[in-house]
Amino acid sequence: MSRSAHPAGPRHADVLPEGHPSAPPADLNHLDRKVWASTVTRTPDGVVSVGGIEVTRLAEEFGTPAYLLDETDFRERARAWRTAFGADADVFYAGKAFLSRAVVRWLHEEGLNLDVCSGGELTTALSGGMPADRIAFHGNNKSVHEIETAIRAGVGRIVLDSFQEIVRVAHVAQSLGKRQRVQIRITVGVEAHTHEFIATAHEDQKFGIPLAGGQAAEAVRRALQLDGLELIGIHSHIGSQIFDMSGFEVAAHRVVGLLKDIRDEHGVELPEIDLGGGLGIAYTSDDDPREPHEIAKALNEIVARECEGAKLRTPRISVEPGRAIVGPTAFTLYEVGTIKPLDGLRTYVSVDGGMSDNIRTALYDAEYSVALVSRTSEAAPMLVRVVGKHCESGDIVVKDAFLPADLAPGDLIAVPATGAYCRSMASNYNHALRPPVVAVRDGEARVIVRRETEEDLLRLDVG
Ligand code: LLP
Fold first, then answer.
1. Could you give the number of structural domains in the chain?
2. pLDDT tens across 6-17, in order?
3. What is the atom index within ligand 1 of the atom nearest the CA of 366?
4. Ligand 1, closest atom to CA 138?
5. pTM above 0.85?
């Protein structure tokens, strides 16, 4: 999902199949700061380290494949979002990107809120100690049981996703003798520039209530009438891995337009708007993400301007970054196994994981980068495809990349920017054991999600 490819350079014609779009980087040992977590560095002896610990040591202690998460980087990113938006806004980390109790604790300590979208995420959030009133509950098909659990727990808001859910949540709240704070998620009709599967604001899809045809206005009418609901705002999430702010601009314009219509019709100024998550990160050197302070400035300005135009009090803004916080903080460490050169094509490098720990390449054609991390090499660049060990030819982790030609079985390679939507979308395909997440900070490593074992697999098999 990188946006552009490097132009082919004649110097590298010998390592590229004809017509191949990219060229190798000048120095394969160089770690591009854009894609690696902040404490990742190469030690003088050539081994890459994170949080002050060499990956060779981490591999010995925790095995491979493993997700290595830079806790310092995570906290810095969380704090940067919090600081950028300030006291007049709320940052809800989107738990779907990656959630564990340790992460919940860090978020709590750094002053962030949490967005969950299932009973399982809600349980993890509560179990990690996030105060319920700082949790937002999302989802297009929340079960009555999930709704009941969320309301009983006292979640700060439920984001209503359909006409049926407006009634369902109101009914459950009333039966529990409560009035639930809610937002209504609308689709503003924006075509976000991202992969079709992760664009969510155009109308022909399952999320939200369309603004078009007055449907969102009708949803507001109904919600305002129901005793079990306290409507606090409007929610919009336009998609994921987005670099261009213009989609957010259109979304803010339309959400504020709805707030104005609500004021005109009902005499009510809703106090909050949520503009969702979706900010892109660098997966390869070609991606240029924006910093949280730039995003905050842009969003605050857009909303303030729109509200001034509509003569509305500026509502409290919230945002829901997931990938932009956790994505760059982790990399996946693999051990190289079979290496298969295919003449005139490329070399297939098999690792000890694959689509079970990173489905994003197969699912979205996502682009990743890769580096040799257990040593440096001065060998010539070799065009590789990093593949897993699953029984599927689409089992690709990195589609096109360069590694040194002296790569050998037993070398450690790492794929950066795998903190978001990798462990959280991991599977047991071929009965693979899902890798651990190891948090590293100031010379200390600690497992925050342990590796699955064969006993774990067999425990579920009760036949
Ligand atoms: N808020 C809502 C309502 C969402 O649906 C999402 C993501 C987010 C926030 C966080 O978006 P982020 O800041 O992480 O982009 N599995 C896909 C991404 C799916 C995103 C789903 N919703 C991927 O791997 O790219």
1. 2
2. 333 333 445 566
3. 25
4. 3
5. yes
